[in-house]
Write a structure and sequence with these properties.
Blueprint (H helix, E strand, L loop, with lengths): L15 H17 L3 E2 L5 E3 H8 L4 H6 L2 E3 L5 E4 L4 H10 L8 E10 L11 E10 L4 H18 L5 E6 L3 H17 L6 H9 L10 H6 L12 H16 L4 E3 L11 E9 L2 E8 L3 H4 L7 E7 H10 L11 E5 L5 H13 L4 E3 L6 H11 L3 E5 L1 H6 L1 E6 L5 E5 L3 H9 L5
Parallel strand pairs: 1-5, 7-8, 12-13, 12-14
Antiparallel strand pairs: 2-4, 3-4, 5-6, 6-11, 7-9, 9-10, 10-11, 14-15, 15-16
Helix pairs in contact: 1-5, 5-9, 6-7
Bound molecules: histidyl-adenosine monophosphate.
Histidyl-adenosine monophosphate binds next to strand 6, strand 10, strand 11 and helix 11.
Amino acid sequence: MINAPKGTKDLLPSMSHKWQAVERAAHKITALYNAKQVRTPVFENAELFLRSIGDSTDIVNKEMYIFDDKGGRKMALRPEGTAGVMRSFIENNLGESLPLKAYYIESIYRYEKPQAGRYREHHQFGAEFFGSELPVFDVELLCMARDFLREIGFNDLVLRINSIGCPKCRAEYNKALRAFLGAVGDRICDDCKRRAQTNPLRALDCKVPSCREVYKNAPKISDYLCEECRAHHRDVVDGLKMNGIEFIEDDKLVRGLDYYTRTVFEFCDGDLALIGGGRYDGLCEQLGGKHMPCVGFGCGIERLIAAADARGIEFENNAPKLFAAAQSDSARATCDRIVREARAAGISAERDLMGKSLKAQFKYADRQGFALAVTVGESELASGECVIKRMFDGATFSAKLNDLPSVCKSILSGERG
Ligand code: HAM
């Protein structure tokens, strides 16, 4: 027996309605905001991620699936969605009519220590908005994220938000942070000692509890923002208030990717982020494009569904509608026809495909959650009349075999008792 790779999860048929509901919500809400779907390859040149996410991040340092292909090129399975979408934006000259709003639903690969809410393959619904540096752009994206969460049934997730400034003000902040990290050097982990040299902001993202305790007293980025970044943040926050989005300002929120500028945010369920994102005004230029202000988010679908389950949020489950049960072999051809006609009328339908007894057919129909069942035997074949059973309450309705689709429709729509 060969098992699935550690840290991966199959999407089982019994769960698929939840995934479909999430994807439906994503397609519906993005359409309301005039966002269009993109699909990029599951693997890219590894260099793309090194240059965008940052070579001192955990994602690049510890978690990327890198391999040489048969042509000797260094490839990587995508460890996040933004870099690939940006590569596609530049390569395909998508910036002719701005703003451009793109979204994706895709698998993501990170070699993480498998635990609850952390997988080596997970899936994200993500959105990337290209073209405006105005605070209203950040607010537009956050409204879309909020509307998506509402569509699923989340009304109370906490939005944490911060500004991590632009390269200009961040340079000042990095100096102060480096000095702080130097002073507390004997109380922080080895990774953070290294981060203090290479990229001090990354230390604030450290997951080691003792480091997190020490960083409670670290200098705050909010004290170092330049006037433009401060004004941008103030306007974003005002826009959130105007749109009724509740938030907490969290000046320790820095996120785990290097491309962010100014706004960073997470929608959290307890300690776990369901949605994370922010602005990344420098990434396009960094990858060889022109100056292009952008803002985006990624939502972990596995985490979202687990959080919804924990809250008892129900996902629409389209139960199959009509089961045609054959009482004898001579009735099977008629069941076949009933099913064909029902499907042609848009009613999901099935009949026995395994030679089961009538009792076993009904057991199957019950377990599958069919709404209606019709039994066809000698007397139905002779009279052309049948009885439809409504499974949830056992109510029965008589119908002509030739008229089943329209009778089923009226029962299903509630027109009949
Ligand atoms: P991220 O915060 O690394 O951001 O991931 C986004 C979301 O994906 C997280 O909030 C979480 O729900 C989910 N997620 C991340 N890692 C895992 C994992 N190992 N297992 C399960 N779920 C996970 C990004 O990836 C950015 N590209 C988001 C973004 C888009 N920023 C701007 N545009």
